[in-house]
Amino acid sequence: MKLDNLYKNDMDKKRDSVIETIKESFSFLTPAFLIGAFALAIQSFPVTAIRELVATVLDGKLYDFLEILYQATYGFTAVYLVFIFSCLNSHTEKIHTDIGVISVISTTICYFASLGSAVLNGEVSLMRYTNMANVFSALLIAVLYNKLFFLLYHKLMRNREDAYSTTFTRGIHCVPIVCICVGISALGAELISLCEGIYNFNDLVVALLGKPFETIGATFLGGFLIMFCESVLWMVGIHGSNVFDTLLTSETSVFAFGNGCIMNKPLLDTFVLMGGCGTTLCLFAAILLFSRDKRMRRLTRLAGIPIVFNINEIFVFGIPIVFNPIYLVPFVVTPLVSYTISYLAMFTGLVPPIINGSVHWTTPVIISGYQATGSIAGSILQLVTLVVGTFIYMPFVRKADRVAVENEEKCLQCLTDICRKAEAEKQPYRLNHVSALLSSFEENLFNKLNSDIQAGTVAIHYQPQVRDDKVIAAEALLRFQYREGKAVYPPLVVEIARNRGVFEELSKVICKRALKDLKEMQRIEPAFEVEVNLRIELIMDEAFRKWLIQEVEEAQVTPNTFGIEITEDANISDADVYQTTFEQIKKSGIKVFMDDFSMGNTSITILQKNYFDFVKMDGSLIRNLQNERTQSIVSSIIQLGQRLNFRVIAEYVETEEQRDQLLAMGCDTFQGYLYYKDMPVENLVGILKNENKDRTGQ
User: Cβ of 231: how many Cβ atoms within 10 Å?
Assistant: First the structure.
């Protein structure tokens, strides 16, 4: 199995889907949604005097500025989604980067071609078809034409690429593919425009969905069905409010306010769609009250101000709720329950009917309920529906928490498998052609790691080393945790840090933490030793080396009790520069360990140089100690240590039989589960205190 295809197991086949890519696409728009939502909230502030002030101050320039922010973000949502989806989808294809860029351009052209000639000629406003109301059609076009591009590419052009292709030649090769995609899109738009008053696919969808409700009437059932369909449409990215807007707002419509019916648009806006579609103010409350997902709670707090003013796009598309099967049921059911409660409350006379149909749509709950009915009963009704809706959302919020944790665990296992595969094949760790979900999770891992590095809180454990049944030293081990109690495979953390350019900072944090902990442990046992793992390239870096020597001096630990382990397959030649480097380190009171001796690039010839104070035998030797040839190798290493004046440490000692064999060969220092697993510094301090108490009797 190729390394780049390792993620193609059952879990990733399931997750590397169109739906997951669409959901990920919405996440990238969070900054745009935030900016647009705050601009709209200020423009549409529920206090008339403030709205008028915003519209007139600086001769209307403030309003114009806010309008620019809103239109530049929300006004082109559909275009942004086409672009983002195409980028993410192309990332999963095993192609040259240039082909991926061309696929994005091709799909974006197809989107504009699908708008039809009337829109592109300026007969109809282009902005009408680039905003939030066109999400469904935009995503459908993005999926169809980006997938079509790659289908044609793999069928027609893949074998024409060679090592000498340039961006220009690859572009020329793709011309027929782009022509086919754009041609199909343009032809489809022209066929749709043959319908009177229909300019493109989006218009067709809206017209077909809204038509049946014109004859139902402003009855309880009519309103119930409208709410049901509107919520379902939102879940698949169709702007449900736009579909029924004309039906609900037309002065000649049976749903118009003042027609004597309980069911009308003010009822829906004020008592049903609190916080926007899906009665998302209830979801907002449910997440703050019941969710344990820190990311979700943070996003919810960011959406707090807009959603109070019934602006919920950042919520709907940021979580996202759209295309999210977990929230399908409550997103549809909560408005229906709110509608039923509100309708019955007014039908039975418990709450007065709406007397003010001009309450501004951004007016917060409680206030809007009172303004609409002229009674405190209206506010109480809103509170009742808010509480009921919150508890409807509650189990689904908890389910979303569980699913998020499960997905993270699967992604973490997949990244760990990729890292292990890279180690086994001696290849660099890379994420090529993987799902958007997996790439996003690695990004989250890095963000958490970088945050811990900046705060100096990267978790470190210590595994004790034992001589004569006494703990005399410990190895510092990286134990980064993504969630509480969820440790990440250390080599994966190291590789992510290296790829993202923070490995040196990570190493510095580990060294500083180890020196601080060593100082604490030496208050109990002054001769106690600690070593940390460092890569050879860091040790050879003069600036880092000077920093390390200075840190050891400033820590004021006992001389020659802090050590460094040369990790991985360190390629150490016998050049003079290595000799000088190691001499400088050892003169500074820092011991040098060779880790995993007998594997990789380590060679017995480097033991001719007096580089190392300690040699730690590779764990595979200890695990295979029952083999006679392995016994001979281990015995030879121990004898070399005795003759060349370096100590030998046996790692991965897990049984008494292994320990006894090693003792018989002359090795007296052990590290492994027979004695201790790795542990936090507090536990190690406790062990040292107990040993000191047993020894001194105090």
Answer: 22
Sign of the Cα torsion 73, 74, 78, 81 reads: positive
> What tokens does 289 get?
């009250």
- Tokens encoding 206: 């809206």
Q: Report the C-alpha gap between 271 and 493 in whole angstroms.
A: 50
Cβ proximity of 413 and 437 under 8 Å:
no
- In single-letter form, the type of residue at position 147 comes to K
Whether the bond into 325 is cis, omega within 30 of 0: no
| Measured CA angle at 449 (ends 319, 444), to 5 deg | 20
Report the candidate in 136, 94, 91, 137 with the shortest Cα–Cα distance to residue 112: 137
Q: What type of residue sits at position 179?
A: C
DSSP secondary structure letter of residue 426:
T
Residue 560 has pLDDT above 80, yes or no: yes
Please determine, for residue 695, whether its predicted confidence score (pLDDT) is greater than 70.
no
pTM of the model: 0.68
pLDDT digits (tens, 9 = 90+) for 598-633: 655 455 556 666 677 888 887 788 888 888 888 888
Q: How far is the C-alpha of 140 from the C-alpha of 22, rounded, in Å?
A: 10
Looking at residue 448, its amino acid is K
* Residue 22: pLDDT over 90: no
| Distance separating alpha carbons of residues 102 and 272, to the nearest angstrom | 45
Beta strands 481-483 and 470-478 are unpaired
Maximum average pLDDT range among 114-128, 245-259, 373-387: 373-387
Q: What is the mean pLDDT of residues 245-267?
A: 69
Q: Which two tokens stand for residue 277?
A: 């579609």
Q: From 111, 337, 316, select the one nearest 233 (Cα to Cα).
A: 316
> Rounded to whole angstroms, how far apart are CA atoms 338 and 92?
42
Cα 131 from Cα 632, distance rounded (Å): 74
Instruction: State which amino acid sits at residue 155.
Output: K
The 8-class DSSP code of residue 557 comes to: P
DSSP class per residue in 135-155: HHHHHHHHHHHHHHHHHHIII
pLDDT in tens, 163-196: 557 888 888 888 999 999 999 999 998 898 888 7
241: nearest Cα among 131, 352, 142: 131
Q: How far is CA 204 from CA 138, 198, 199, 210, 690, in A?
A: 14, 6, 8, 10, 79
User: 393 Cβ partners below 8 Å, 6+ apart?
Assistant: 282, 283, 285, 286, 330, 334
Nearest to 570, CA basis, from 584, 581, 586, 559: 581
The dihedral sign for the CA sequence 27, 28, 33, 35? positive
The DSSP string of 602-669 is --GGGGGS---SEEEE-HHHHHTTTSHHHHHHHHHHHHHHHHHT-EEEEE---SHHHHHHHHHHT--E
Kindly write down the DSSP assignment for every residue of 344-360, as one continuous string.
HHHHTTSSPPP--TT--
Q: Are 134 and 473 in contact (CB under 8 A)?
A: no
Residue 267: partners with Cβ closer than 8 Å, 6 or more residues away: 223, 339, 342, 343, 346, 354
Residue 430 tokens read as: 């890379």
Residue-wise pLDDT for 328-362, tens only, equals 999 999 999 999 999 999 999 999 988 887 787 78
Q: Are 570 and 560 in contact (CB under 8 A)?
A: no
Q: How far apart are CA 169 and CA 172, in angstroms?
A: 5
Name 51's Cβ contacts closer than 8 Å, sequence gap at least 6: 43, 44, 45, 360
DSSP annotation of 671 reads E
**Which residues fall within 8 angstroms of residue 434, CB to CB, at 6 or more apart?**
7, 12, 16, 91, 92
Q: CA-CA distance, 294 to 85, in Å (whole number)?
A: 26
